[in-house]
Design brief:
This protein has no helices and twelve strands. The chain is an all-beta fold and 144 residues long. β2 and β3 form a beta hairpin. The relative contact order is 0.27.
Length: 144
């Protein structure tokens, strides 16, 4: 999982623009999450459900004000890949996903992380942290 400015999947390949950042802002900026998931051979014919959750530094959901009230920032989807011809028996089968987001009103000077779960399971490495820069008038002045 990698943070980037934009991502696209074409012909099974993941195309990433401005990838690998961990600091954004301080203003509103679009972002994307590029995912490469290796699906075990035995699980490839099954349908799978994925979810991404945006959390603050304490692990609490980041809420977005909506007409229906505050809502957590979450993205969901499904995939099913089957076992493609030509892939050696027993091999993991990769699936690439590109999730492009518009600008999110995140607190300047904050720490956040996107957390991935697949089929209700998550692991330690399935998160990508990032920070938002302080507004220029809030940034401490450098000495000297």
């Amino acid at each position: 999982m990698i943070l980037c400015d934009a991502a696209q999947v074409s012909e099974g390949k993941l195309f990433i623009l401005g990838g690998g950042w961990s600091v954004t802002g301080p203003g509103l900026s679009p972002m994307a999450i590029a995912l490469k998931v290796d699906v075990a051979w035995a699980e490839a014919p099954d349908g799978h459900h994925w979810e991404l959750y945006l959390q603050d530094q304490d692990g609490a959901p980041v809420l977005l004000e909506t007409p229906e009230g505050p809502q957590p920032i979450e993205i969901r989807g499904d995939f099913q890949i089957g076992t493609p011809q030509g892939v050696p028996l027993g091999s993991d089968i990769p699936i690439n996903l590109a999730i492009n987001l518009g600008p999110l009103p995140l607190q300047p000077g904050g720490r956040f992380r996107w957390v991935l779960s697949i089929d209700g399971q998550s692991e330690d490495g399935w998160a990508v942290p990032f920070s938002t820069m302080l507004l220029p008038q809030e940034a401490p002045e450098a000495e000297g």
